[in-house]
């Protein structure tokens, strides 16, 4: 496991940023790479501990899991005498996480499943909520910790930690990457590791919720999704249609929202089976027009400009050109 520590000339907090605890969730790997090149680190106070690939075995094999078939993010705090997952979890937690005062853990959706940029955290903890609001993601989801997760053991040690979810496994998503880098820099400013930005931007109001639900397939067939990530849907709205591949429209089944909210996750597979999770919707009712306005502004800020490789002059760019989707 490769770890890079960047220490500022002046004292300050210690923050760890980790990615690829699930080896196929690779957006975070690119976020950490860009973070380590960011010019703002020249003014760093304290120590940034960057771990671009926690689950090295899974990363090399394009797999979510370790070779022993276990999920590393269900194996904490682990033990030096247990399975491979338990040993990796124990070593990572004790040698890295427990030595830090704050943490940000980077994730994506599963294979063939995309997530809207969002922060999942214990929003009832004041320090964690302040970090979450500073990050700048369009959605903040209060989420309970899961048994054996990194968030659970960090919380037990009173270490505020954010879980950033965005994009899809095994794919780079330029918007998700840009939001992640910007969000980490924002958090570092909020906890005193970086000076305030000279460019004053109005803070956008995120959608904050503690309830979400999955809409599942009622029948098997070919899925035709009708709403994208980030769409606001009302109760009863048609999200998709599951059809017979032969073309008999009399057998079409409409998939509808059970309650109003914003689509924060969806499957990209066209073939679905009865019971499959199709859309993840965060429940939300208040001030939706204001939230949608902020979301559209958010998209405009992070959407990459057109890039022409034929006319690319590296000297004109302060950062890497965008990754094409």
From TrEMBL:
<protein>
    <submittedName>
        <fullName>Succinylglutamate desuccinylase/aspartoacylase family protein</fullName>
    </submittedName>
</protein>
<dbReference type="InterPro" id="IPR053138">
    <property type="entry name" value="N-alpha-Ac-DABA_deacetylase"/>
</dbReference>
<keyword id="KW-0862">Zinc</keyword>
<feature type="compositionally biased region" description="Acidic residues">
    <location>
        <begin position="316"/>
        <end position="325"/>
    </location>
</feature>
<dbReference type="InterPro" id="IPR055438">
    <property type="entry name" value="AstE_AspA_cat"/>
</dbReference>
<feature type="domain" description="Succinylglutamate desuccinylase/Aspartoacylase catalytic">
    <location>
        <begin position="11"/>
        <end position="190"/>
    </location>
</feature>
<keyword id="KW-0479">Metal-binding</keyword>
<keyword id="KW-0378">Hydrolase</keyword>
<dbReference type="Pfam" id="PF24827">
    <property type="entry name" value="AstE_AspA_cat"/>
</dbReference>
<dbReference type="InterPro" id="IPR043795">
    <property type="entry name" value="N-alpha-Ac-DABA-like"/>
</dbReference>
<feature type="region of interest" description="Disordered">
    <location>
        <begin position="303"/>
        <end position="325"/>
    </location>
</feature>
């Amino acid at each position: 496991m490769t770890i890079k520590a960047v220490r500022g000339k002046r004292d300050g907090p210690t923050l760890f940023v980790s990615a690829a605890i699930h080896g196929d969730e690779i957006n975070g790997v690119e976020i950490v790479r860009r973070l380590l090149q960011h010019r703002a680190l020249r003014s760093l106070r304290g120590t940034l501990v960057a771990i671009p690939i926690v689950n090295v075995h899974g990363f090399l094999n394009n797999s979510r899991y370790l070779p022993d078939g276990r999920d590393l993010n269900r194996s904490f705090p682990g033990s030096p005498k247990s399975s491979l997952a338990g040993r990796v979890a124990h070593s990572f937690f004790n040698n890295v996480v427990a030595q830090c005062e704050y943490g940000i853990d980077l994730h994506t959706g599963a294979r063939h499943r995309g997530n809207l940029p969002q922060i999942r955290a214990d929003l009832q903890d004041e320090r964690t909520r302040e970090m979450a609001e500073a990050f700048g993601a369009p959605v903040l989801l209060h989420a309970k910790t899961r048994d054996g997760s990194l968030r659970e053991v960090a919380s037990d040690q009173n270490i505020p930690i954010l879980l950033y979810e965005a994009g899809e496994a095994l794919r780079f998503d330029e918007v998700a990457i840009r939001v992640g880098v910007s969000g980490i820099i924002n958090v570092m400013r909020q906890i005193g590791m970086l000076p305030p930005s000279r460019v004053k931007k109005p803070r956008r109001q995120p959608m904050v919720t503690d309830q979400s639900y999955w809409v599942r397939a009622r029948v098997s067939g070919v899925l035709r999704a009708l709403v994208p990530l980030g769409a606001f849907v009302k109760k009863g709205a048609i999200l998709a249609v599951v059809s017979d591949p032969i073309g008999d429209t009399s057998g079409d089944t409409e998939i509808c929202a059970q309650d109003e909210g914003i689509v924060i996750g969806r499957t990209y597979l066209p073939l679905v089976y009865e019971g499959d999770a199709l859309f993840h919707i965060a429940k939300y009712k208040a001030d939706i027009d204001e939230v949608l306005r902020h979301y559209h502004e958010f998209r405009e800020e992070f959407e990459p400009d057109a890039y022409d490789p034929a006319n690319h002059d590296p000297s004109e760019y302060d950062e890497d050109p965008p990754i094409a989707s």
